Amino acid sequence: MGIVRAAGLRHDYTKYREDESEVKVRALDGVDLDVKEGDFIAILGHNGSGKSTLAKHINALLLPTEGTIWIDEIDTKGEENLWKVRQRAGMVFQNPDNQIIGTVVDEDVAFGPENLGVPTEKILHRVEEALTKVGMLKFRDKSPNRLSGGQKQRVAIAGVVAMRPRCIVLDEPTAMLDPTGRKDVLRTVHELNEKEGVTVILITHYMEEVVDADRVFVMDKGKIVMEGTPREVFSRVEELKSHRMDVPQVTELAWELKKAGLALPDGILTTEELVEALAALKH
Amino acid sequence: MQLELKDVSFIYNPGMVYEVKALEHVNLAIEKGQFIGIIGHTGSGKSTLIQHLNALMKPTEGQIFYEGEDIWGEKYDQKALRTQVGLVFQYPEHQLFETDVITDVMFGPRNQGLSKDEAKVRAVRALVQVGFPEQYYNSSPFELSGGQKRRVAIAGVLAMDPQVLILDEPTAGLDPAGRDEILEQIRFLHEERGITIILVSHSMEDVARYADRLIVVNDGKIPFDGTPKEVFSHYRELEAMGLAAPQITYCMHALKERGFDVDVTADTVEEARDNILKALGKPLPAPENADKKPAGKAKKSGRAGRR
Amino acid sequence: MLGEITLGQYYPADSVIHRLDPRVKFVGTLTFIVALFLVKGFLGYVMVTLFLLGVIKASTVPFGMMLRGMKAIIFILLITAVFNVFLTPGEIVLVKVWKLTITREGVLQAVRMAVRLIYLVIGSSLMTLTTTPNSLTDGMEALFSPLKVIHVPVHEIAMMMSIALRFIPILTEETDRIMKAQIARGADFKTGSFINRIKNMVPLLVPLFVSAFQRANDLAMAMEARCYHGGEGRTRMKPLRYTAADRVGYLVLALFLAAAILLRIFGGGWI
Q1: Is A127 in contact with A113 (CB distance < 8 Å)?
Q2: Position B33 in a domain
């Protein structure tokens, strides 16, 4: 039984047009999901593919129109379980500015534990611990406005970590960051996954961020259309592109070389792999 | 020379504790029709630099010339300059405000003093050029998808008929296909209208693929300025500036070290492929999309067939 | 211009004043304002000035930071001064031009009002400069919590204030950005008639509102995701607890207020 499990998840939302007519839009269309605790999961999908809607179901910010989603065996539909669900599955959003509540870094990280009613004497410890884990302890007295995008995003992650979740969902956390910030955030998330065993569900459309995941899901039109290890998914280059996705540049190069007749293995993900494979061909 | 910066410096809060030198004695000459990529990490001064090009910021020191005229000269018409040097900010969809798409795009031309009809002609042309579907011309810009909003915003600048188009990370936040579509549109504009493009980007892969000149901004200075190949040959220095070269560059260097006879300056997928095939003595594949792109830039079409 | 308002801009430092309980600082600011309008006479102003200087010194905040808040009120300051100078009746006429007379009382009144306004701004920015907005709102929440009995949503108001303070710099930056983007599209915010200028604000205000609503929506979701459900059952990382320094603070304030009252009664003086 996985930490996050969904069966036949469907979500419709109502859109009001200018002429005040209602349109039903199906954002999720029968999603089944089973995420093993401790895994690093990546969800790919173009803008409007339903991946954000799925993320919000994991945190009970949205409830399914049909089907069920369980977080740590708790059905998110039960209202009495709302805070349990949200404590277990933390959420980091895209825009770093719009999710930091505190005007000082450590006050922001304390926000979650305070809401959970953690005793005062324990909060400080949790805050320090969380800031240490994301490498932001020395900024604890700073105003978030003075931090870079990547640093803000790590504070947001600390804010979730301080709630001691079993699972963290990150909804395009790097979309607004520069390459340095992106690298820092990604490293932080991987460390949390490896050292703390926190399950990570990373939603992104940067292909390079997916390479180290345990499993990759590709979404399109509210459905999961591809699933597998990064190697499996990235070896299906044309199928990925038909879902408005891409592959890392090296993978693309390997694929092109293969098409041109070289006997290369499928789904090459890194420069080293490609160089090794080519060197083997040469001899 | 279309645009020229002579010894331009810009200092935030001069004389205060928070004094920051954003630009230091920058010299730059931009010729008509170039496709320029600007790279630099956040805070390197690149945003300050591009805002100097259309007189949104005034240099603390030095001069800026457009078509040979000093843009801070006494009688210089800066409003007219801004129609000539169009600037598309990051997340430009945040500037949309009208009730329908077409009126929003007409805002720039109207400010230029054009009549409603003339402005409309310009707006329609700009919307066509960014590939915005006609059926949504009268929709509210706020109801569009992110990619479409961005097109409308770019059209809003394009409708002023600029000779230079500066785009600050026009693909930020878009998915891979949306990103490629916008970049292809920009390339199309460059080729069809011959306007100078200045593209600020964080993606080395993208600038390698589209730009014919690359300007690196670091600490308010320009340490490198040349073709992408020349600039990426300094990839070690770029890394020290918090930048990098395209993944392909690293790949080619690694192959060279392993004794492959490849050209390390190859910086797009197709170039790299052909190089490797040649080094292995294999035949090159027949160009599959030869008819797709205008001839001049065919060598640069990096990623395989997608529009 | 927006960027120059220091109100709500915390200046990080580790001074005696920074460490004081926000409630003390809040009560202190109120006491200071009361005293400011209470005192009379030269001695009174000397005392208030000394008190203010003392607190500024103890706060280690550079004096320039406080003066920055002044730019925002310069206009009000001038108007008040002009009105006072020309409209205060008095016996000793200094200058008389046409129908306007300037009396000694008028000049003194203008000076007094100017001094009070300046001190008022410095005094209150001193509070916001030395107190993080969060602890400020915590302090207010604690001070006003008795009002909960009559169903005043004290916690919610405090939370809203705190969020507003956090987003002021962000929205200021955003305003600047949108303004520049529209100027790049040929918009004009500086010239034209008053009505036209108001009209020209539309391309700035609409995007600003859209963005503010978007931010509000995002933030609400982020808060919910972190289990925010109002003040009930909430604990605090840094609960407000009075220390010895705070008690000394209250004592100083009491003495200060007493002195102000005494000076009002017996002070007089030549001013």
Answers
A1: yes
A2: no
Q: Are A33 and A14 in contact (CB under 8 A)?
A: no
Q: Does B12 touch chain C (CB under 8 A)?
A: no
Tally of domains within chain C: 2
Contact call for A272 and B248, based on CB within 8 A:
no
- pLDDT for the residue A205: 87
Provide the ipTM.
0.91
Could you give phi then psi for residue A50, rounded to 5 degrees? 105, 0
Closest C-alpha among B280, B260, B276 to residue B268: B276
pLDDT bracket for residue B17 (50, 70, 90): low
| Shared-domain flag, residues C191 and C227 | yes
Q: How far is C150 from chain A (nearest CA, A)?
A: 24
Strand arrangement of the beta sheet that strand B85-88 belongs to: B85-88, B164-168, B196-200, B35-39, B213-218, B221-226
Sequence letter at residue A250: V
CA dist list (Å): A115 to A150, B252, C226, C236:
25, 53, 7, 9
Judgement on whether residues C202 and C157 belong to the same structural domain of the protein: yes
Q: What range defines the domain where residue B275 resides?
A: 246-287+300-307
Domains and CATH numbers, chain A: 37-63+82-229 (3.40.50.300)
* Chain B: closest CA distance from residue C181 (Å): 6
**B136 touching C, CB under 8 A?**
no
Same domain, C77 and C88: yes
Is the CB of B162 inside 8 Å of chain C's CB atoms?
no
pLDDT at C2: 37
B45 contacts chain A (CB < 8 A): no
As to burial, measured by CB atoms within 10 angstroms (0-12 exposed, 13-18 middle, 19+ buried), residue C244 is exposed
Query: What domain range includes position C178?
Result: 133-240
Which CA distances in Å does B211 have to A179, B228, B299? 19, 7, 12
Chain A environment of B205 (Cβ under 8 Å): 249
C170 plus C148 within the same structural domain: yes
User: Alpha-carbon distance B51 to A39, whole Å?
Assistant: 45
Specify the number of domains making up chain B: 1
C6 and C88 in a single domain? The answer is: yes
Residue B9 lies in a domain: no
Which tens digit of pLDDT belongs to each residue from A213-243? 999 999 999 999 999 999 999 999 999 999 9
| pTM, rounded to two decimals | 0.85
Residues of C in contact with B97 (CB under 8 A): 202-203, 206-207, 210
